[in-house]
Amino acid sequence: MTAETMQAWRDEQEKSLRADNSWLTVAGLFWLNEGANTVGSDEGNDIVFPAGSCPATLGTFHRTDRTVTFVAAPGVAYTINGSTPKSGALQVDGDGKYTPDTIEHGMLSFFVVTRQERIGIRLRDNDSQARRDFTGRVWYAYNPAYVVEAAFTPATNNRTISIQNILGYFEDTPCAGTLTFMLNGQTQTLEAIDGKGSLFIVMRDKTSGHETYGAGRFLFAAAAVNGKTTLDFNKAVSPPCAFTPYATCPMAPPENHLQVAVPVGEQYVGEHH
């Protein structure tokens, strides 16, 4: 990859982050109580959406154990998945395993998420303050020295990695395998998980919490061919929680804490965690 093609890739990352329904538009995460949970822009609701974004009373979410239904207030128009709504329980995301039913009203869209025993509503607002105020992603200079070949050793015996998210929950995540490579003259390893046709890595290094996002960065690599793949650390990116406080990102597991600095890829200019 040349500096020019890297810039084109960065432009695509910028475009994606600025798009409708991107992480910049995530404007709330509201945990549901058992029973009725009213929602609207009025401060008296159990769930308060941004002022002016919807009626004072938009409707009510009803939670019964793991089942959630939505009943709109009289006269409120909305759609589910772009179509006229039908009565019944909403499909939830199942900790990201399923595509949830998305309710749309004006510039808002919202859906049910589960995080182990907690069930909540994630709100997207295409007119969010964060989207309007965003000034752009910040990158280190491209450095081809941080494009390295890695040997891939597939995991055996259904091995898992314990990965903690920013809510404090741990999840035993299936490990795809171990990547072994040279960086700054030292042998390094990273544990990868299945990225749906690619390898997905959540990593920290000596820049984390200083120049890059504290919880780590994300890196994707092509699936290994003949036991090898390429790691391009220039493509290390900040996770969604760097752009919204309402994401529940995984943090780099201890196995992926590199003891060297990786001063390429995306930097972080907010408050470091």
Output the keywords:
single chain, 273 residues, mainly beta, Tumour Suppressor Smad4, 2 domains, seven-stranded antiparallel beta sheet, five-stranded antiparallel beta sheet, 37% strand
Task: Give a description of the structure.
- The chain has 273 residues and is mainly beta.
- The chain is 8% helix and 37% strand.
- It has 2 domains: 20-133, Tumour Suppressor Smad4 (Sandwich), CATH 2.60.200; 137-256, no CATH class.
- It is built from 2 helices and 16 strands.
- Strands 10, 11, 12, 13, 14, 15 and 16 form a 7-stranded antiparallel beta sheet that branches.
- The two termini are 32 Å apart.
- The mean pLDDT is 92.
Q: What is the structure about, briefly put?
A:
This protein has 273 residues and is mostly beta strands.
